[in-house]
Amino acid sequence: MANQVTRIFVEKRPGFDIEAQQMLSDLQENLGLRNITELRLFNRYDISGLSQDELAKAKKIIFSEPNADRIYDETIPEMDGCKSFAMEYLPGQYDQRADSAAQCAQLLTQGERPQVLTARVICLFGNVSDDDLQRVQHYIINPVESRLASGE
Fold first, then answer.
1. 42 DSSP β-pair partners
2. Are 11 and 41 in contact (CB under 8 A)?
3. What's the CA dihedral at 33, 70, 105, 45 to 10 degrees?
4. Count of alpha carbons within 13 Å of 117, Cβ hemisphere only?
5. What tens digit of pLDDT does each residue of 67-100 get?
6. Comparing C-alpha atoms, which of 17, 146, 148 is closest to residue 90?
7. Which of 37, 46, 106, 137 could form a disulfide with 113 if both were Cys (CB 3.0 to 4.6 A apart)?
8. Integer Rg of the chain from CA
9. CA-based nearest residue to 9, from 35, 38, 36, 47
10. pLDDT computed for residue 150 by the predictor
11. How far apart are CA 121 and CA 124, in angstroms?
12. What's the pLDDT score for residue 88?
């Protein structure tokens, strides 16, 4: 069923997770949130318009780099002590990651261009209060281009 929406999450493996480490350092330095001890960053893709075979190929060559990334189908792994949120572009804002992935998938399949929507999921670890979580959200999400994304 090619018009079914499939959700995958992609996370850089330890050692390749430079963006997550920089974000953690930024929050610790600029917001003084030293109680955040770890940060994991996932790219969420909602994909429709690909067959299961096409999606299986695309996961390995378009949505991830097998040696640097971990791929999770439908949900991220259960993580104790994680406070998380997802952010996405506002409707009408250009999402380069989604556009590039859709273009590459179309080149791969030589067929119709699939629909790709992206979001970023940020998981914070440590003694993180609800207030800390809100401060991080306000710091990271630029309301001109992005918003909190639902888990749906």
1. 11, 121
2. yes
3. -40
4. 15
5. 999 999 999 999 999 999 999 999 999 999 999 9
6. 146
7. 106
8. 16
9. 47
10. 83
11. 10
12. 96
